[in-house]
Amino acid sequence: MSEVAEAAEAVKEPKEPLFSKKNKKLLTDPLNDDNPITIQVLGICSALAITVQVKQAFVMALSVLVVMIGANLIVSWMRNLIPSRVRIIVQLVIVAALVILVDQVLKAFVYDVSKQLSVFVGLIITNCIIMGRLEAFALGNKAWPSFLDAIGNAAGYGWILIAVAVVRELFGSGKLWGYQVVPDAFYEFGYFNNGLMILPPMALITVGIIIWIQRAKNTKLIEEH
User: Fold this and answer.
1) Between the CA of residue 126 and those of 94, 193, 201, what are the distances in Å?
2) Are the C-beta atoms of residues 84 and 135 closer than 8 Å to each other?
3) Where are the domains of the chain?
4) Residues 165, 171, 173, 179: what is their CA dihedral angle, to the nearest 10 degrees?
5) At what angle do helices 87-109 and 54-77 cross, to 10 degrees?
6) For residues 67 and 105, what is the distance between their CA atoms, to the nearest angstrom?
């Protein structure tokens, strides 16, 4: 081995573990302290519109997960090839292609849910969470961190959707995933489903309660005026 090669080997940076502390934070931070919905206030539209039922929320969360992983990986692999002036257009084309693919799969295998989600699957193309992570992270990082970042942010988005849907479907219709869970005996004793829970304003109120709980548990999240 030549002296130049030996010197290069000596100064070579140690390889970062796949699940280093830094990489783990990419998975865990979006679940709470950097949640895309409750902290960054992104993706609110779908949180209000498709959380009437847990099934819809789960399918939307899974769709966003697939699109985010695919988009983050593709943009990360192409980051040195994408001209800066057209990067937004390239990102939109990548996301649009993935969303079309996901939409066709939903129509083929869960057509009823696809109809209920309506235009909101297509609106994943302009989801601020996805475009934000492509621009802020995938364009400047390698594939593995981008993969973890996609999983973390999609999971952070997804658990909020599902949590809101659980509350709205349970108290709004007495069901979960379409199955009756409130016993008939409750209704015989005068229990009524809360019709307000299936209206969009209750989704906003439920998200607001989650935001309040987060900030009550971690006062560092409270913005200074």
Assistant:
1) 12, 35, 23
2) no
3) 46-215
4) 70
5) 140
6) 12
pTM over 0.70: yes
Rg of the chain over Cα atoms, rounded to whole angstroms, equals 21
Q: Per the structure block, which two tokens stand in for 27?
A: 């998975």
Helix 87-109 / helix 128-136 crossing angle, nearest 10 deg: 140
The DSSP string of 130-182 is: HHHHHHHTGGGS-HHHHHHHHHHHHHHHHHHHHHHHHHHHHHHHSEETTEE-S
User: Can you tell me the distance from the alpha carbon of 191 to that of 171, in angstroms, rounded to the nearest whole number?
Assistant: 11
Low-confidence ranges of the chain (pLDDT < 70): 1-19, 222-225
What are the counts of helices (DSSP H) followed by strands (DSSP E) for the chain? 10, 2
Question: Taking the alpha carbons of 73, 76, 77, 81 in that order, is the dihedral positive or negative?
Answer: positive
Using CA atoms, how far apart are residues 223 and 3, in angstroms rounded to an integer? 55
* Dist CA 200 CA 44 (whole Å): 11
Q: Which two tokens stand for residue 125?
A: 């193309």
Instruction: Count the neighbouring beta carbons within 10 Å of the beta carbon of residue 186.
Output: 12
Summary mean pLDDT of the chain: 83
Exposure string for 82-115, b = 16+ CB within 10 A, e = fewer:
beeeebeebbeebbbebbeebbeebeeeeeebbe
